[in-house]
Amino acid sequence: MTFWSRASLVSVLAATFLLSSCSQLTALVAKAVLQKQSQGPDADRLLQVVHAYAGDAKLNGGASAKEQAANVPIDNGSEYGFEDDMALDLVRKDYDTLDKVAQDLRSTKARFKGGVWKLSDFYDGLTRPPEGEEANDDAWEAHIADLKAWIAARPESATARIALAETYSEYAFRARGNAYADSVSDGGWKLFSERTALDAAVLVDAAKLKEKCPYWFEAMQHVAVAQGWSKTQAKQLLDAAIAFEPTYYHYYRVYANFLLPRWYGDPGEVQAFAEQISDQIGGQQGKFMYFEIATVIVCGCDMPSDRAQLQVLSWPKIKDGYAALGSLYGYSNSKTNRFGYMAYIEQDRSAAQAAFSAIGDDWSQDVWESKLDFLNAKVWTEGQQGQ
User: What band does 380 get if pLDDT is binned at 50, 70 and 90?
Assistant: First the structure.
């Protein structure tokens, strides 16, 4: 996956601004500096584009998230392999395949085992250079040129523009780095602002095209986090996204990330959102959503902090949500690692044993800070003295 995905949207965004302390003071400093430095397009103007986009077309035909079709295709294959295939198609300039795959994924709403929309992984495969973490600025610029070539060849492809916008988003956070917000250089903030502005501008261009895509809203949510939109503005964006495609659960995760104290929320706000949206959706989908938001809050960033966050969530609801996930979409290794991690810090040995039995030695670097942390947890589940 891309940086956003592998760092966990738990995440995407949370890991980019990773704060080793989740203290209220640190969060306030980070928010103040972020909002001071944001120089992107006016959020209210972008919201006008958002509302027009939401009204242009709806993929869901009026269905609610609770009414998610039971026969959504589930792919048991590798998410990473799929992303690599999409990246290769871009290098090969196989624009026919790229546009067709995106169109099919929007139509079928296909998911990978574990519930992740394949459409999300489609864009993840296209929004970073093939060199990954080793990519330098030349590689980034070459990747941007490849996406612009796709746009030139297919001027009516909104998919190509959304991929370019997300690349600018990734490139912006690369300029910013992962230091504390108040220690980012003036040059870093300048590049961050410039690239975020390019991100937003490309999304506005994409909105003018006939082709519509639910991921467009998620891309705009990333702009909202980068630019420091107000809570009211971020909620309007979420509502518009839900109106367009309520079954695209990634919207709720990005919004939950926005509400974390390390970003723009107040203590307890994101937990209240988890309760509210779970009840609003209801049924198995609502339970699944509670688990997904819990994995944003308990992000694997810092175990003591995660333990404290877990105490203000409902562990029984997390367990119910994990069970609903399995019933709806099956379990992926990543989701099982997340549940095993939470079961460990909750000290629920029976739940942890079941998860670790499924994980085996296939621990996830997206979840555990180190292999040693994973092994200590595994020893504890076996009833020994691991700490």
Answer: very high
C-alpha pair distances (Å), 167 with each of 174, 199, 203, 336:
10, 8, 11, 29
All residues at 6 or more sequence positions from 193 whose CB lies less than 8 Å from its CB, including other chains: 37, 38, 39, 40, 172
pLDDT, the chain, mean: 86
130 within 8 A of 87, measured Cβ to Cβ:
yes
What b-and-e string marks burial along 292-311, b requiring 16 or more CB atoms within 10 Å of the CB?
A: bbbbbbbbbbbbebbeebbe
Token reading at 91 = 């290098």
| pTM (2 d.p.) | 0.86
Q: Is residue 282 part of a domain?
A: no
What is the CB-side half-sphere exposure of residue 268 using CA atoms within 13 A? 0
| Cα angle for residues 310, 3, 216 (degrees, 5° grid) | 90
Count of structural domains, the chain: 1
Query: How far is Cα 32 from Cα 71, in angstroms, rounded to an integer?
Result: 46
3-state class (DSSP) for residue 52 = helix
Range of the domain at 67: 3-233
Look-up of token digits 């979409």: 329
- Tell me whether residue 52 is in a domain: yes
User: Among 112, 52, 59, 96, which residue's Cα sits nearest to residue 246?
Assistant: 59
Residue 178 is predicted with a pLDDT of 64
255, 232 contact by CB (below 8 A): no
For residue 18, pLDDT beyond 50: no
Q: How many angstroms separate the Cα of 341 from the Cα of each of 232, 276, 286, 298, 331?
A: 33, 24, 22, 9, 15
Residue 385 has pLDDT above 70, yes or no: no
| Secondary element (H or E) of residue 111 | strand 111-112
pLDDT for 57 equals 53
Does any domain span residue 100? yes
Structural domain contains residue 323: no
- CA–CA separation, 60 and 67 (whole Å): 10
Residue 175 to residue 314: CA distance in whole angstroms: 38
